[in-house]
Amino acid sequence: MSFTARQNEIVLKIATAAQQQPVLSSGLWFHHDIRDNFYYASYLFAAAVDQPEKLSFEAKGAKETAEAVLLEVLALQDQDSNRATYGHWPLNLGTSPREAAPNALPVELMGSLMAFFASRYSSHFSSKLQQAFDSALEHVYRSGFYRQNNVFGHHDAKYTAAKLIFGERYEDAALTEDGRSNLGLSLAHIRKQGMSEYNSLPWFWHWVQAFTCAWHLIKDQAIKQELAGMLDFLWDERSAFYLKGAFVGAHCRAQKHDIPLDGNVLHDYVQFGDFELPAQLPRTEYAGFLFYEAPEEIRKRAINRSEPAEVKKLITKQSGGGTTKLHSYAYITEEFAAGGMWERYAEFDNEQHRWDISLPAGRQEGVNQAYFFHPSDRNGNEDPRHQTGNTEVLFYKNTIAALYAIPEGTENRIIGILPHIEWMQEPGMLLGQTNQVYWSVYVMQPCVLECLSDRYVVTSEGAHNGVIIEAVSCSDAKRIGLPIFEAFAAEARRNSPIWLSGENLSVRYVTRDETRLELTVDSQGISDNRINGSAVDFSEYTL
Length: 543
Fold this sequence. Notes:
By secondary structure, this protein is an alpha+beta fold. Helix content is 35%, strand content 22%. The protein contains 13 helices and 23 strands. It starts with a helix and ends in an 8-residue tail after the last strand.
């Protein structure tokens, strides 16, 4: 299937969902987020115009519904140039959208996408919709929301793209040049420092979306080539941590629909197409419209995982306290990936997702990530994204060791999230299997295993605690003399780790390839990680 066919599939799927959605008395479908109204209406309009013969409903009526919702969205813009919120839209619409306060976020993303949508479909607009788009976009341009200091984050990616897009639309050479300067500075920065917002979702996709939107709209070939360089970098970064729709390894931040289940997969689906489009699409942003084909070698690397690969990335974080170097590790095979960030870094709202073992997206029902963490709030079971810094780790290929030296006065409970498969619980360990992967999980302290609809949750208490989790593909297990799960389980029972708890907390474990792993945390919280007796070598970690 071509990328165009995959985009058309997305458009039809979301258009169908929009058509089935009841229109509220406000004239909108949703009050939780204005952007969803714009996205759904865009897809419904596009499907009615581009693929009417494939619709299961009447195209003319669908186009009229989409127009009505788009008009209502555009009408919610603050068009009073005397107000600080000039050019903005409300975000959460509440019970009365017309009275909802404007917010700075919607225009960041919607503004450029509106320019793209108008450029592509204006010939199909009614005169009323054409006038509404022309007015709204001019107010966006005149608002100057994009005139911000560039600190090389996802907001800046959208500001930079907006400068280019609106500079070109309104023949503002100074604004276009400002955008081009920002683009050059941003690309130079990430090439030198790495993505400080490492594997951050959905914000990584906002980078991709913003610059792809600009790439489609910009006519200046020199700027277009610079945008292509940025997009090549972004897709190279994505492919390094890609496994059939899963975004593996550590994450700077993530929304609930990406931890512990990779749900934000539409851009991956269009680019790579090596997994099935899921039934639920929690983010319907413009993957059905925006596409830039990554270079062939990047796509091949992402899709071809026939041989295991280690990814070792160096990331620079800059803050008021100075510069910090982080080291990101991933071990990726055809059937699973393991890895994370060696260092704890206090990301926004304690959202650093430190480590996990991931399965390909959609390989089975329920979550596709397995990990343990010490929660920073009491809501850890319901929202397993917020972690304390009381974790030390050791990564070696398909094995992850983690120790939790929890300070006195802090809740001494760790939580584990495991895929929804059949688990055997035995003293000190859990054993499980999918169709392709065998799992062994060792927990230092006694634990409780609870089955939920889409996952298993492990709870274990103790001021000193630890976890070893190892994944082995069924084919690799067979190759090393473990042809069935029972043989794997018997070998796992014989190979339990050695836990030591006293003044220091430590674990020793010998992997199936006879590599000796040792992780220790002393009374001061300082860790020491060793592989075959040697300290971890970070010299191979590069940008």
